[in-house]
Design a protein that fits this description.
The structure holds two protein chains of two kinds.
Chain A lengths: L6 E5 L6 H12 L10 E5 L2 H14 L9 E4 H7 L1 E2 L8 H13 L3 H7 L9 H20 L4 H7 L3 H23 L5 H10 L3 E2 L3 E5 L6 H8 L5 E5 L17 H4 L11 E4 L2 H18 L7 E5 L5 H10 L4 E3 L3 E2 L4 H13 L4 H9 L1 H11 L6 H12 L13 H12 L10 E2 L4 H12 L3 E3 L3 H21 L8 E2 L1 H13 L2 E2 L8 E5 L10 E5 L18 H7 L4 H17 L3 E7 L19 H12 L33 E3 L2 H7 L1 H9 L14 H12 L13 H20 L5 H26 L3 E5 L2 E8 L2 E8 L2 E5 L3 E8 L7 H5 E4 L2 E4 L3 H9 L9 E6 L8 E4 L4 H19 L27 H11 L2
Parallel strand pairs in A: 1-7, 2-3, 2-6, 6-7, 8-18, 9-16, 9-17, 10-16, 17-18, 19-22, 24-27
Antiparallel strand pairs in A: 4-5, 11-15, 12-14, 20-23, 21-22, 23-24, 25-26, 27-28
Helix pairs in contact in A: 1-2, 4-6, 4-8, 5-8, 6-9, 7-8, 12-13, 14-15, 14-21, 19-20, 20-21, 25-26, 27-28, 28-29
Chain B lengths: L10 E6 L5 H14 L7 E5 L2 H20 L1 H10 L7 H13 L5 E4 H11 L1 H4 L6 E3 L4 H20 L3 H12 L9 H17 L17 H12 L15 H16 L2 H6 L1 H8 L3 E2 L2 E2 L2 H46 L2 E3 H11 L4 H12 L5 E4 L7 H16 L6 E6 L14 H7 L4 E6 L1 E2 L4 H11 L12 H9 L5 E2 L7 E6 L22 H16 L5 E5 L2 H13 L4 E3 L3 E2 L4 H14 L4 H8 L2 H6 L7 H15 L1 H12 L5 H20 L5 H10 L1 E2 L7 E5 H4 L4 E6 L15 E4 L9 E4 L3 H4 L3 H26 L2 E9 L18 H4 L3 H9 L12 E6 L38 E3 L1 H4 L4 E3 H4 L7 H12 L12 H10 L7 H11 L3 H7 L6 E12 L2 E15 L2 E11 L8 H23 L6 E7 L4 E4 L2
Parallel strand pairs in B: 1-9, 1-10, 2-3, 2-8, 4-7, 8-9, 11-12, 13-22, 14-18, 14-19, 15-18, 19-22, 24-27, 28-29
Antiparallel strand pairs in B: 5-6, 13-23, 16-17, 20-21, 26-27, 27-28, 29-30
The chains are: A alpha/beta, B alpha/beta.
Bound molecules: iron/sulfur cluster.
């Protein structure tokens, strides 16, 4: 047994914040008044305690500067305490890369014992993930002074045994690979250091509040010869509760109750209710005593509560910030890298659309193309809608082709040359930096300005990660693509955070593990629920719970004892504490109270359980804002056009009859939905394609053609031409399939058409926009529209035809008329208005009106002629005049019943608003 | 209480009717196990919903806690556990065993358990690490399905002849039609059939149709020729006239066969007779000659049809297989799993491992399942059972240990067949060795009046004329029904069956036409009016209106709204239905699509438009970009919260509450999907339903959604409409003897006529029809038993308006006997003569309509706070923040916190910054210069310690040594009587509200009597300077150095005046003093 003479315990007591006691102890050490703590290495549980300790030292040194101690978190301590011999230690990245290539080259037999479903060979990110999983297991084992070979020996369960035998072999290869290049694995180095007692550290080590040192760390510290002071957050009377290094003695603490007043505990339902309870706690404190924001800490048993609590506090007008900061994963430069990588992977249209939507990229494109006026995103959306975005992109079509090509090239210039080529990882560092320089270069940023911080910190971190990447040992560097390298960089920085700048008094939200040394006098902890406090061990793919137990890695009792001790300590010196327990998670999962709250006597236990399960009316989340007197979210009232409307399309009559307000939005204001979601031809575009194709039937050469074969062939080639013209040579496959479906329908139609021609019908006019003036109340009004086709028969006269390509065939009466309460109403006037449009072509009133249906069921391809008599047509005309009068008079209100199908206008037209009638009424009063 | 006094608990299957207390049974069993000192971690209790899991947990804990308190509750628990007495100590021990093991309780949803189990096998099953679980209905899943479909199409198109196959496949998929939509159509198929495929992926099962003998072209021609030659042998009647019908069919056969229209041939009446081997077609005899002449063509036609069906079935399989692979690849690549994945990977992987699999899983989870408690067992799917069965098997096989199986459920409520629920498992489990069955039919929910109606309907199914065509299913259902009794015998109730208004509309059949669904018809208006009257009669009571489809529920919602009745859908209404929320969504849509003029108009014309400055017609693209930037920098929740705060004065209380709920949804979104496009947020919100803070008393929902709920009164207005033979989701039928028997074949569904083509098809279709009927009856049972006291059955009158719009005088009688809920209820409940031809006619009534009674005042409405309470006032302490100070380096203190992005991103190892670090490291090696110079090698090593670089260290070391030979430098770095030298020494100080940390490059100190009396502070600079530039360089660094000096003076406790502060420009041997 090693001598432990170099270790000394100091009990800080529990009557005041441990950090204060520790700072005072440290300052008191400087008897000579030199304030030189340069030789101290202080280990604290977390980053926040480190920052706070430094502040306290600076604050308590009476305005003097000091030579600060090195303060590290417990995670960083092991790296500071290193074996003297054994060569340099491989960095984490190097280790991970070495593992990934060992795994990749393992060979099927060995590999399949570890992962039966390995990633594809060229999927480096897949191998990195796998390596990361192995490393995490190794970290956990290492902390317990175990190596892979120990597990291989001790795992007896058949599945584990085979897996760890294989891993043992791989671990040997991994270590051999490192040592071949003069490097050592960190866990191996530590194991050897402890075994040979060769650990040394040139600092005087101070452990502050580290009640659960890992076995490895304890062993390392014990083999030192330099002094170690363990500052224990406890009363000296509890000295037996701690080992030499201040680690918790489980047996001493495990049966101790945690003393909590019932009044401190509050049970709530949902996360938002927990936030409300926290707010009320703050209110209570502020009413009892003058309290400032930085005297209040909110602990988070469940980190997911940070968002609702922060929001609730700030909506209540209180300054609040998360001590952990905002996740780097969402930072703009990181997101930029992510979308650039996605774009580099196949240069797909959707990736381009996402890339250009990145605000920094969009701004850069404007500068780059020198075109700030052009709405790039709108062009892209229109393109996706009109031409169906090809994926990957292969040439642009249409009027804006040149402009789009320019923006595409600009986007491509963000990528390095040959981004697809495989290069050694470290060679990608500069191209990645170059991509970022391209977008962000030239900007001067203010480190302490809120908006710039969102760039400064991530850029700094990325640059650091890139430097590490650039320094990758060549032996470990895989040959990968640009996108893969970017993925690695993104994953390296994503776990980090952008800390809040600080400087303002603020309520801080602090993760549970950081709470132990928090020194704010008021503390509310939300999420005091089982599965969060104590935090359960993270199950992992390689270390199942059973294996953990057999290796002694899991010690729930130890955790419970430790957290019980910690909570007791946290409550000991505070007078303002609130512990909030939830019943349901945000996902609706039932929650249970933390066992810490149940480490108590029988009566209290029964009472707490009863409180927890008590039937409660759903608690009402507090109203944080004051609503206005009136709801001003109204439907915008139509604004009369200066000139009365004097012209309408034949198809617009249907819209007016359905709802004058929607007519106003669509046809007067010409509003439309625009997005880029199209993956194939919409019904409208399918119809247009059919029309464009069928147009050729009116040509002189085909007008009298009666061979279905010839007609069919000609229609087929016309279809191909029309399609290629609009959708290019590499359209989405779905559209190609649609073309074939349309071809099938056209083939069926060719037979029908041939029969018609045989029967004597000839196409007289093909589709063309026509106008006709009608007089209503003595005033002229123009009706516009296209008649798909006007046919003439020597005996039967004219017929006016509209092509229909909907899946099911339509009858004119079905679409034009609706029976309400036994009375027929005109709901569409398209076909009757054809008579108006064609009058000047000499088409008489008796012309037939009909649909030529080309439905999906091709046996139903046929003409559907309307059976309207003169009386009905005159009713239609009356309806027409009525609509014209209303449109002229600007009657676009009130809205009618919403349509059966979502048309995109539902939100604006308040289709599903519970009290739509009242809203319409209110809009009349308050809209404008 | 000691363990020995317990007999082992039997394995138990409990059939508990509606309202009979399933949760109570399950929790009693759980408590019984605790009493027997079973370890909670080993008791696996699963439910189907989170809510149910929460109830089980709360009930177990609550019953124990109140038993600990003593009195009546403890006796109740003792009775439930069949103990004469329970001591407080017993109860406490049970409670402690539970709370001590709280972290390892295995009570939760079945998905939750499968999740844990699957995670334990992540690598073995090839699952992605740390996956996110999503729902098949989520926008993300939808997006991935769409992408997967594009890949399927892409892959097919690229393969040889793939395009042709693809098109053929799609046409076959859709019954030989050329449907326009491709993606949506495939999506529908893969959604409906995905689970069937995953259950039966074997292509052989999808290829079971016999080849019944297609004829070759030659044989067809020969047969046709022969038939053609028989024109003069057409049969004649007594008068020698050819039977015209026979002749017409004959001609049709020939022409259709020539054209290859084999479908028409098969439908030909004469062919039908020939296949049936009938003697006559109409009156015309079919002679043997004719029989044998037509027969080959008939056989061929049938074979052709079967071939088409086989092709269609195989095309379906192929598509499903392809899609399944692509979809899975996408999910796994994005580390996303569907809940069904959990079941599927386990069902595919675990049972194959047999008992070893169970042991392995127990080991990995470090918990042995010794007791299995399964809730709502009738909803367990075959795939789920495949995972659970090995556990059940191990439990029931094992007689020595104390192990037990307990299933509770109700086959009468098996309405999730379309989701895979398989009630037949109930019988299978009942048949396991040593399993006892119990039936509970006492209802703790409904009044006897309601139960009487239920009894009356479900005990007379065998004689119900409406069910005449499905007697098997009806009788079997009835056999499983036990007479229901009310636990609260005195609870009043009221049941009516009555007709609604005569509909003068389009003669609706009750079948819903999706295109007109939103427009309420007369029936819907009547129902809405009826519900309005009910709300007045039953103040404060909950009313559940249960419909058969969502479309109909939506239609009724419209009708209720037009009467001004507040009603909510199950789970609340989508919050996008609130104008303020819609405006926010429009703004986010606009941010993603600045060219969406509708969204832009919507925002601009709302108070949010003012807030964003859109009313001032600014550069809208810049506004959109600004919104996107804020979304990225702050997240959705923070931005929307910010908007909400500023919009509050423009919102009514209701809108404001909904906006707050939107913030909650946004928080959820920030957690998971936030990196996706903004419009994705819009879709996510539109799909989400959120309960309003003041829940409406009237709830409209589908019967399926009402499962597990109860209402004071239930209205069933959607009872008409024939129960179709199959579910519209049934694109395929399975040939199996029962849902738990092996599947012999999978076929595309065909019409009733075609189903007769082969025995397999016929069997499969009949089996499906049987299952469907059973489920239909379950649905009716569930609907009726949701009612506590009032049950209102509304059916359409038999006399319906004709299409002309005028009611025909003649009622149709089929409404009494067709297969519909209305007819079943009419048959079971109506009194003689009460056929219900007319509108507004009462056909059955029992109990009393005013059951609410005068003494029962409505419960107070939930209090809603409209105004926030007084603001919270925190004091601000003067001066600085007490914690979390700004940390800075000295150079950042003085307005040098500006930093160029290029500098930040300069990673080149030869960069200026790096060179500076190397030189500093080398200078750190320099002691008092008059006492010796460092070796070149030591300098190089110091430079190397800075890190990898492309800097030539030898060269740098040489130049450092050279500069150490310069006169001014030598003069400065000499000891000169100093007794102490600091090199590269860090310091920390609090200055002007900031925590400053920095490093002194070099300090010379003089002491007298332990007190510092003099100091020289030296800062190395690598900039090059000359006579002209030195002043500005010094100016640049002066503030920073004064700060150093200030820090040093407090550190060593001497006056600042006693510190000489020098800048050494190394390269040019120039020294400058800072005043
Ligand atoms: S001496 Fe031991 S404990 Fe100290 S740093 Fe070295 S290896 Fe670590």
């Amino acid at each position: 047994m090693a001598s432990l003479d170099h270790i000394e315990r100091v009990f800080l007591g529990c009557d005041r914040p441990a950090l204060h006691a520790a700072a005072d102890w440290l300052l008191a050490r400087e008897r000579d008044g030199s304030l030189d703590m340069g030789e101290l290495l202080i280990a604290v549980p977390g980053g926040r305690a480190k920052r706070r300790l430094e502040e306290l030292l600076a604050e308590r040194s009476a305005g003097r500067a000091l030579i600060p101690p090195r303060v590290v978190t417990i995670a960083g301590l092991a790296d500071r305490v290193l074996p003297e011999s054994g060569g340099p230690i491989a960095s984490r990245l190097t280790s991970m890369l070495a593992w990934s290539s060992v795994l990749r080259e393992a060979g099927d037999a060995l590999l399949s014992a570890v992962v039966p479903y390995p990633p594809p060979r060229d999927d480096w990110p897949g191998w990195w993930t796998l390596a990361e999983q192995v490393m995490q297991a190794a970290d956990e084992l290492g902390a317990h002074q175990l190596a892979v070979e120990d597990v291989a020996t001790r795992a007896t369960q058949p599945g584990d045994h085979a897996r760890w035998q294989a891993l043992r072999g791989l671990a040997e290869r991994y270590e051999a690979m490192l040592s071949e290049h003069g490097l050592t694995d960190r866990h191996r180095a530590r194991l050897d250091g402890v075994r040979t007692r060769s650990c040394a550290c040139n600092h005087h080590i101070v452990l502050l509040g580290l009640a659960d040192l890992s076995p490895m760390l304890s062993a390392m510290l014990k083999c030192l010869s330099t002094p170690v002071d363990a500052l224990v957050v406890a009363d000296p009377t509890d000295a037996d509760g701690f080992d030499a290094l201040g680690g918790l003695v489980q047996s001493y603490w495990q049966h101790r109750n945690v003393v909590i007043d019932d009044g401190m505990i509050q049970v709530c339902d949902r996360p938002i209710d927990q936030a409300g309870a926290v707010l009320e706690a703050v209110r209570g404190w502020s009413e009892a005593l003058p309290t400032s924001a930085d005297e209040i800490t909110i602990g988070l048993g469940d980190e997911k509560l940070a968002s609702p609590i922060e929001r609730t506090l700030s909506l209540a007008g209180l300054p609040a910030r998360s001590a952990a900061g905002r996740s780097m994963a969402g930072a703009r430069p990181v997101q930029l890298l992510r979308v650039v990588a996605a774009f580099a992977n196949g240069m797909r249209f959707d990736a381009l659309a996402t890339l250009l939507r990145h605000p920094d990229c969009e701004a850069w494109i404007e500068t780059r193309t020198g075109d700030t006026a052009r709405p790039w995103l709108t062009l892209l959306d229109r393109y996706a809608t009109d031409h169906l975005a090809a994926r990957p992109i292969a040439g642009w079509l249409g009027e804006e082709a040149e402009a789009l090509q320019r923006v595409y090239q600009a986007a491509c210039s963000l990528l390095p040359d040959q981004a697809d080529a495989l290069r050694p990882l470290q060679q990608w560092a500069d191209p990645i930096a170059q991509t970022l320089r391209e977008v962000y270069g030239g900007q001067t940023l203010q480190r302490y300005a809120e908006t710039d911080r969102a760039l400064v910190v991530p850029l700094e971190q990325i640059a650091q990660a890139l430097q590490v990447l650039a320094a990758t040992e060549p032996f470990a560097a895989p040959h990968c693509t640009f996108a893969q390298a970017v993925t690695l960089v993104v994953s390296q920085v994503s776990g980090q955070a952008i800390p809040a700048p600080g400087g303002e008094a603020s309520i801080e939200l602090v993760g549970y593990l950081e709470l132990f040394l928090d020194d704010a006098p008021r503390l509310a902890i939300a999420g005091m629920n089982e599965q969060h406090v104590p935090e359960p061990p993270r199950a992992s793919a390689l270390l199942s719970e059973g294996l953990r137990r057999s290796l002694g890695l899991t010690d729930d009792a130890q955790r419970l004892a430790r957290d019980g001790y910690a909570l007791t300590t946290m409550l000991a010196w505070r007078d303002g504490v609130k512990l909030v327990v939830g019943r349901r998670s945000a996902d609706g999962d039932p929650l249970l109270p933390s066992r810490l709250l149940l480490k108590t006597d029988d009566d209290t236990l029964v009472r707490r359980i009863s409180d927890f399960v008590a039937e409660q009316n759903e608690t009402q989340a507090p109203m944080l804002l004051t609503p206005g007197k009136h709801d001003r979210f109204l439907m915008p009232m139509p604004v009369l056009t200066p000139e009365p409307i004097a012209s309408m399309r034949v198809t617009a009559f249907r819209d007016y009859l359905a709802c004058p307000y929607r007519f106003y939005l669509k046809h007067v204001l010409k509003l439309d939905v625009l997005d880029d979601r199209a993956t194939e031809l919409s019904a409208r575009r399918f119809g247009t394609l059919a029309h464009d194709t069928l147009r050729i039937l009116a040509g002189d050469d085909l007008r009298a053609e009666t061979s279905p074969k010839i007609l069919s062939d000609r229609l087929g080639s016309a279809l191909d031409q029309a399609f290629a013209k609009r959708y290019g040579k590499t359209p989405p496959v779905a559209a190609l399939v649609q073309v074939e479906q349309l071809r099938y329908r056209l083939q069926a139609y060719a037979k029908v058409h041939a029969d018609e021609v045989l029967a004597g019908w000839r196409i007289e006019h093909e589709e063309k926009t026509r106008r006709a003036e009608v007089l209503v109340d003595g005033e002229p009004f123009t009706i516009r529209g296209q008649i798909d086709r006007i046919d003439l028969h020597p005996e039967l006269g004219h017929r006016l035809i509209d092509y229909k390509t909907s899946d099911t065939p339509k009858q004119p009466s079905q679409t034009h008329l609706k029976t309400i309460e036994g009375v027929q109403h005109w709901v569409d006037l398209q076909l009757p208005l054809y008579l108006d449009l064609s009058r000047e072509l000499g088409v008489g009133e008796t012309a037939q009106l009909g649909y030529m249906n080309l439905p999906k069921k091709v046996s139903e391809t046929r003409l559907a002629i309307a059976d309207w008599d003169a009386g009905m047509l005159s009713a239609a005309r009356e309806q027409r005049d009525e609509v014209i009068r209303q449109v002229r008079a600007g009657v676009f209100w009130p809205p009618k019943q919403p349509p059966a199908f979502e048309d995109g206008f539902g939100g604006l037209c308040a289709d599903d608003v519970a009290d739509r009638a009242a809203l319409i009424k209110a809009s009349e009063g308050g809209g404008g | 209480m000691n363990q020995s006094r317990f007999n082992p608990l039997p394995h138990q299957v409990v059939r508990a009717s509606a309202g009979a207390g399933k949760t109570y049974q399950l929790t009693t069993r759980y408590l019984d196990l605790l009493m027997r000192q079973e370890v909670p971690a080993n008791i696996l209790a699963t439910t189907f919903t989170r809510k149910a899991a929460g109830e089980v947990l709360a009930r177990v804990l609550g019953r124990l806690a109140s038993a600990c308190a003593g009195g009546h509750e403890r006796q109740q628990l003792a009775d439930a556990l069949r103990q004469s007495d329970l001591s407080r100590a017993d109860c406490l021990r049970m409670l402690r065993s539970l709370t001590d093991g709280l972290n390892r309780l295995a009570v939760g949803t079945i998905d939750g358990f499968f999740n844990r189990a699957a995670r334990a096998f992540t690598m073995d099953l090839g699952l992605p690490p740390d996956p996110r679980l999503i729902d098949e209905g989520s926008p993300l899943a939808q997006q991935m399905r769409s992408d997967a479909i594009q890949s399927v199409l892409g892959e097919e198109a690229e393969s040889d002849g793939g395009m042709v196959t693809l098109i053929e496949m799609l046409r076959r998929l859709h019954h030989d039609t050329a449907q326009r939509s491709v993606t949506d159509a495939i999506d529908q198929v893969v959604k409906d059939l995905g689970e069937v495929y995953r259950g039966y992926p074997d292509p052989v099962l999808w290829d079971q149709l016999p080849d019944t003998g297609l004829l070759t072209k030659e044989l067809i021609d020969a047969a046709l020729e022969r038939l053609d030659a028989m024109r003069d042998q057409l049969p004649t009647n007594g008068k020698g006239q050819v039977y015209s019908g026979f002749r017409d069919r004959y001609e049709e056969i020939i022409s259709d066969a020539r054209l290859g229209h084999w479908d028409s041939v098969l439908d030909n009446g004469l062919v039908v007779k020939v296949i049936e081997d009938a003697e006559k077609y109409g009156h015309a005899p079919i002679s043997e000659g004719w029989q044998s002449a037509v027969h080959p063509l008939a056989v061929h036609a049938r074979a052709a049809r079967l071939k088409a069906l086989a092709d269609q079935t195989q095309a379906t399989h192929k598509l499903l297989a392809l899609f399944d692979r692509h979809y899975k690849e996408r999910r796994f690549a994005q580390r996303v799993l569907l809940f069904s994945d959990l079941t599927n990977v386990l069902a595919d992987g675990l049972p194959g491992m047999g008992e070893a699999g169970v042991d392995e899983l127990s080991y990995r989870l470090d918990a042995k399942v010794t007791h299995l408690l399964l809730d709502e067992f009738q909803d367990t799917s075959l795939r789920q059972w495949a995972v659970l069965e090995p556990f059940a098997q191990q439990i029931t096989d094992n007689f020595e240990d104390s192990r037990g199986l307990f299933c509770v459920g109700d086959t009468k409520q098996a309405i999730y067949g379309w989701r895979g629920g398989c009630a037949e498992l109930f019988d299978a489990v009942g048949a396991l060795p040593g399993v006892e069955e119990t039936t509970l039919s006492k209802s703790y929910r409904s009044s006897q009046a309601v139960l009487d109606a239920v009894n009356q309907v479900f005990t007379s199914l065998d004689g119900n004329a409406a069910l005449k065509d499905c007697k098997d299913a009806a009788e079997n259902w009835q056999a499983g029904f036990e007479h229901h009794r009310a636990a609260q015998e005195q609870l009043p109730g009221h049941v009516v069956l009555q007709t609604t208004d005569v509909d003068t509309g389009n003669g609706s059949s009750g079948m819903i036409d999706e295109e007109t669904a939103a427009t309420p018809d007369a029936h819907a208006h009547y129902v809405a009016g009826y519900i309005r009257d009910l709300t007045q009669q039953l103040p404060g009571q909950t009313i559940g209106v249960l419909m058969r489809s969502r479309a109909k529920a939506r239609m009724l919602m419209h009708a209720l709204r037009s009467l001004g009745i507040k009603a909510a859908e199950e789970g609340g209404n989508p919050i996008s239905h609130t104008p303020a929320v819609a405006a926010v969504l429009a703004a986010i849509q606009f941010a993603d699509h600045p060219g969406d003029s509708l969204a832009r108009f919507h925002v601009s014309n709302s108070p949010l438009g003012e807030l964003l400055g859109m009313d001032r017609a600014a550069d809208v693209s810049a506004i959109a970009r600004g919104v996107r930037r804020s979304l990225m920098d702050r997240g959705y929740a923070a931005l929307i919260a910010d908007w909400t705060e500023r919009l509050a004065p423009s919102c009514g209380a209701g809108s404001l509450r909904r906006l707050m709920q939107l913030i909650e949804l946004a928080e959820h979104f920030d957690d998971g999907d936030a990196t996706l496009r903004p419009s994705f947020f819009v879709q996510t919100v539109q799909a989400a339903k959120v309960e309003d803070a003041s829940p409406a008393l009237v709830r409209v929902m589908t019967i399926h959604a009402s499962k597990g709920l109860e209402f004071d009164a239930v209205v069933l207005p959607d009872l008409d409409g024939t129960l179709s033979g199959q579910d519209h989701r049934d694109l395929v039928v399975l040939d199996r003897d029962s849902p738990i028997e092996p599947v012999r074949g999978v076929y595309r569904r065909v019409s009733k006529e075609l189903a007769g083509l082969t025995p397999e098809l016929k069997r499969a279709h009949a089996q499906r029809a049987y299952e469907k009927r059973t489920e239909d009856l379950c649905l009716l049972y569930v609907a009726m038993t949701r009612a506590r006291q009032g049950l209102h059955l509304l059916v359409r009158p038999l006399r319906q308006g004709a299409r002309s719009g005028k009611p025909t005088g003649k009622p149709t009688g089929t409404g009494l006997t067709n297969l519909s809920y209305a007819a079943i209820l009419r048959q079971a409940l109506r009194e003689d003569g009460g056929e219900g031809f007319e509108g507004d006619e009462c056909l059955f009534e029992s109990g009393s309509a005013d059951w609410v009674g005068a003494d029962r005042s409505p419960p107070p409405a939930t209090q809603i706070l409209l105004r926030p309470p007084e603001p919270i006032k925190l004091v601000s302490k003067p001066g600085h923040a007490a914690r979390t100070w700004v940390k800075a380096s000295p150079s950042e203190m003085h307005n040098q916190s500006r930093i160029s992005a290029d500098e930040l991103l300069s990673i080149a190892p030869s960069g200026g910054q790096h060179y500076g670090s190397v030189v500093h490291a080398m200078f750190e090696q320099v002691g008092f210069i008059d006492e010796g110079l460092p070796e070149a090698e030591a300098l190089r090593a110091a430079g190397e310690s800075v890190g990898r670089s492309t800097i030539d260290l030898e060269e740098t070391a040489r130049s450092v040594l050279k500069s150490l030979g310069h006169p001014n430098t030598i003069a400065l770095l000499r000891r000169g009587g100093a007794d102490t030298l600091w090199r590269e020494r860090r310091f920390m100080a609090r200055l002007e509200d900031r925590l400053i940390t920095g490093t002194f490059d070099r300090v010379h100190l003089w002491h007298e009597r332990n007190k510092t009396v003099r100091a020289v502070l030296i800062d190395y600079k690598t900039d090059r300077v000359d006579d002209d530039s030195i002043d500005s360089a010094v100016e640049r660094y002066a503030d920073q150095l004064r700060l150093y000096r200030r820090a040093l003076s407090t550190l060593i406790d001497i006056d600042q005046a006693a510190i000489e502060t020098k800048l050494l420009f190394i390269g040019d041997d120039r020294i400058a003093s800072v005043a």
